[in-house]
Amino acid sequence: MARAEIAARTLRTDRWWLPPLTTFVGLLLISIYAAFRTFQGDYYWVDQYHYLTPMYSPCLTEECIPAASHFGQWFPALPGFLTPPLLIIPFLLGFRITCYYYRKAYYRAAWASPPACAVAEPHSKYTGETRFPLIAQNLHRYFFYAASLLLLINIYDAVLAFGTGVGLGNIILLVNVGLLAAYTLSCHSCRHIAGGRLKHFSKHPVRYWAWTQISKLNNRHMQLAWASLIFVCLTDLYVALVASGTISDLRFIN
User: Fold this and answer.
1) Per the UniProt record, which residue ranges are transmembrane (predicted)?
2) Residue 197: CB partners within 8 Å, gap ≥ 6?
């Protein structure tokens, strides 16, 4: 029997367009803020309390404030409008863009591929992730390694800041690395590394335990993806406001 010909794009009567629209607006606003802060090239370090925004960590060029260069200045000052974050953003952006959840999010929100369940997409054909540029999604596992290294650096920055006492900024930096760690560990690649190739869990109890815990986090991967992304921006905003003198850091222990 031939399939029924339905001219309508979808028979859904609910607001199916609202989730992809919300996702698109959210990603757009975060992208605009991140781009502005990246090219601003200022207000990323609070010398009094040793707060370093994660968007500028590690700061590795000669134009960086020396005290903010915890791992040295490996590269000369970048020319023109280029700023230090451009050295690390490709790895952070690569990790997020190739993430399984974010693929679903921006495929639906930006490319309408498809925009929602039971809604036809406007594209005439589908080639999947077998051609350039989408074939680069297979690099996700390698971006995971780079993001994990940058996470350890962010943790170091957060711990180092406690050397001047304890303030609201310390708490914010600590929560930020906690969310980043949870998002990174909940990654599908991390789950696969822990136990993806094991044939007998009983022979590898430690890796099985790790796989089980990561699987629990993986169930919240979408929520952690958004929470960590938004909180990185909020952390950067707080450091920028304190660094610029717009607000004062709330201190608990000096």
Assistant:
1) 16-36, 81-102, 142-162, 168-187, 224-247
2) none
E strand or H helix at 225: helix 221-243
Interatomic CA distance for residues 128 and 109, integer angstroms: 17
Summarised one tens digit per residue, pLDDT across range 27-42 is: 999 999 999 999 999 9
Flag whether pLDDT at 1 surpasses 70.
no
Distance (Å, rounded) from C-alpha 94 to C-alpha 98? Answer: 6
Closest among 92, 34, 82, 32 to 58, alpha carbons compared = 92
User: What sign does the CA torsion over 14, 20, 26, 28 have?
Assistant: negative
End-to-end CA distance of the chain: 78
Phi and psi dihedrals of 57, rounded to 5? -115, 125
Decide: 54 and 169 in contact? Cβ < 8 Å.
no
* Span of 9-13, 14-18, 225-229 with lowest mean pLDDT: 9-13
CA nearest to 83, candidates 75, 91, 95: 75
> How far, in Å, are 73, 85, 97, 143, 172 from residue 94 at the CA level?
23, 14, 5, 6, 25
Query: What dihedral angle (degrees, nearest 10) is formed by the CA atoms of 99, 104, 106, 111?
Result: 140
pLDDT single digits (tens) 194-241:
888 788 888 888 988 988 999 999 999 999 999 999 999 999 999 999
